[in-house]
Design a protein that fits this description.
The protein has 410 residues and is α/β, with parallel strands linked by helices. The protein has three domains: 123 residues, NAD(P)-binding Rossmann-like Domain (Rossmann fold); 191 residues, Dihydrodipicolinate Reductase, domain 2; 60 residues, no CATH class. The protein is built from 16 helices and 15 strands. The strands form two sheets. It has a nine-stranded mixed beta sheet with strand order 14-13-12-11-7-10-9-8-15. A six-stranded parallel beta sheet has the order 3-2-1-4-5-6, with helices on both faces. Strand 9 and strand 10 form a beta hairpin. The protein is globular and about 65 Å long. The model has no long low-confidence stretch (mean pLDDT 94). The structure holds nicotinamide-adenine-dinucleotide. The site of nicotinamide-adenine-dinucleotide has 26 residues, from loops.
């Protein structure tokens, strides 16, 4: 196959990670867009010179019309994924599917069965597998000089402003509207742990909750919105400070089509991102710790926390003959009884921004996989689904206060 044709479903913030790479791309072109929001749809349509009749305001019109591309990029919110992936596969499309695959374990399996039945290629956007940092760790383990992996300690350091943006004010704040954070955010981390352990998870135990972003912690005289709050000058979560003075980069989620100061201010006045972080309708955990046991005897502990300065991952992989310690910027490898060897990521890759460059490599692999069925693809649906099942098990364990055996999950 020469140039691959793609259709975008859902032209929100996340889609930008992929569409930005399609401008002037010699291997792929965007030929259709499905997006209910007129401004977002038009922005994509005009950027890619998409024919007006190939820009759809609703998915039914798209799926009821003739198949128009080789693959779809599903970048809608979590609750739309299962329905849209099934429709796309049945229509003959290959699929790049944003994570989480779906909100229920049975729906994840349903998509996998459907993909197998229709022989569709489905890749999940587990971009961390493509991040040079984790690729390097995997390569070091594969080289074998550290021996077998015995145990892993992994931390997801969300960063307090990222957390307040996405999980207090934003799209993923409520389990009933999105999913538990251990699925929405940490399926990436379970996927990485799985990949490094290279075996199936056997049992999961998990603890956590929402401790801080609650009404009882609101400053005494605070109001429901920052713009008229008497406490705003002393509050670090003042939305104007965060979005206009640049604490947090994602202005696009606040106002995707007008990121001028006036556009952001007016969106903060009316929209979700201007609300008091202590007075939102959020319920997802702000910290959660999980313990994992794998079939091959490897154990892992994983801690997800909102209460961090860096927005990063830190990992320690403890092996028979030495250990690896890493923090996205640097990897330290130390054989027991030897001096550590340091690898600075900035010295081996140009772009370590945005999931460590993972978005770029993932899309490239997807396009390559479409062009050549034997091409290497790292996050196929069948490889990705275990991480989701582990997240469902962790949430069940947290709620039911018991160890969950993976074989009893489904
Ligand atoms: N892989 C990653 O690292 C990563 C990072 C962030 C977000 N995500 C995932 O990306 C997905 C999208 O997140 P986002 O921040 O872009 O959300 P968003 O709300 O900004 O974008 C979703 C878009 O889908 C549109 N939409 C709604 N219903 C639709 C329908 N039926 N058909 C077509 N379009 C429809 C909305 O109007 C919106 O523009 C989520 O599932 C999220 O979990 C993944």
């Amino acid at each position: 196959m020469d140039k691959v044709s793609l259709a975008l479903i859902g032209a929100g913030s996340r889609s930008r990670a992929y569409t930005s790479q399609l401008v002037g791309n010699d291997n792929a072109e965007l030929v259709s867009v499905v997006e209910p929001d007129k401004d977002r749809r038009e922005l994509i349509r005009t950027t890619f010179n998409i024919k007006p009749d190939m820009a759809f305001s609703n998915e039914d019109d798209f799926f009821n019309s003739t198949k128009c591309a080789d693959a779809v990029l599903i970048c809608t919110m979590d609750r739309e994924h299962h329905r849209q992936a099934i429709k796309a596969i049945k229509k003959g499309y290959d699929v790049l599917l944003e994570k989480p695959v779906s909100l229920k374990a049975s729906d994840c399996i349903d998509i996998l069965d459907c993909a197998n039945k229709y022989d569709a290629k489905v890749m999940v956007c587990h971009v961390l597998r493509y991040a040079p940092f984790f690729q390097k760790i995997k390569q070091i383990l594969n080289e074998g000089k550290l021996g077998k992996v015995i145990s892993i300690q992994h931390n997801e350091n969300i960063n307090i402003f990222h957390y307040s943006h996405s999980y207090v004010r934003g799209n993923w704040r409520k389990t009933s509207e999105a999913s538990p954070i251990i699925l929405a955010k940490s399926c990436h981390d379970f996927d990485i742990i799985n990949w490094l352990v290279n075996d199936k998870c056997k049992s999961v135990s998990s603890f956590g909750g929402l401790s801080y972003f609650k009404r009882e912690n609101a400053p005494a005289n605070s109001t429901g919105r920052c713009f008229n709050c008497p406490e705003r000058n002393s509050c670090i979560f003042n939305a104007e400070k965060i979005y206009l003075e640049g604490y947090w980069w994602n202005k696009g989620a606040v106002n995707l089509t007008d990121q001028s100061d006036a556009g952001i201010r007016s969106a903060l006045k009316e929209g979700p991102y201007g609300r008091c972080v202590f007075k939102c309708d959020n319920d997802v955990c702000d910290h959660q710790v999980s313990i994992l046991e794998f079939e091959n005897g490897v154990t892992a502990s994983f801690s997800m926390s909102a209460f961090t300065n860096p927005c990063s991952r830190t990992i320690k992989v403890m092996c028979e003959k030495g250990e690896i310690r890493g923090n996205m910027a640097e990897i330290e490898i130390q054989l027991f009884g030897s001096e550590p060897e340091k690898i600075k990521m900035a010295e081996i890759v140009d772009d370590i921004e945005k999931h460590g460059g993972g978005d770029y490599y993932l899309l490239n692999d997807f396009i390559g996989w479409l062009q050549d069925k034997d091409a290497f693809a790292r996050t196929t649906l069948s490889q990705s689904i275990d991480s989701h099942l582990m997240a469902f098990a962790a949430e069940k364990s947290r709620i039911e206060h018991r160890v969950i055996s993976m074989q009893d999950l489904l």
